[in-house]
Amino acid sequence: MAAIGVCAPHSAFTLKRVNEPVYRLLETLEEMQLVIRDRSSEKWRPTLHTKSLSSGFRDEDWVCQIAIPKMIQMARRILWPIDLMTMREYRMEVRESTHSISPYAINHGMVGRKLPIPETASGRAHLAFASSLPIPGSRSR
Length: 141
Hints:
3-stranded antiparallel β-sheet, single chain, alpha+beta
């Protein structure tokens, strides 16, 4: 399910279940923010929150919960895809994305992708406004 997403009828077939209980299960998982339904393809995809099931709680997850409704609202107005990125392990990690609702998006499935800091607008903005960043292997005075 993580790689390309799954349509509910397909998961019902694979799980040998009736469609209705599968839809109820997926809708419950959506309410718990563990999956998200891509309205254009009708596929269900795991969210970044599913990572917390195996790797534990991440303190910065609250940022996504606050930002995503505003991101969706803006993306529907401007149509351009928007990504929320945070710095993690000296890389910029895509935490949330509106690529699935943008007609201009080329890359889907961006959530969870880690990119080099200088190669992203978010990374460059982070560097521009950071007061001081620890640089691995350097000595501070």
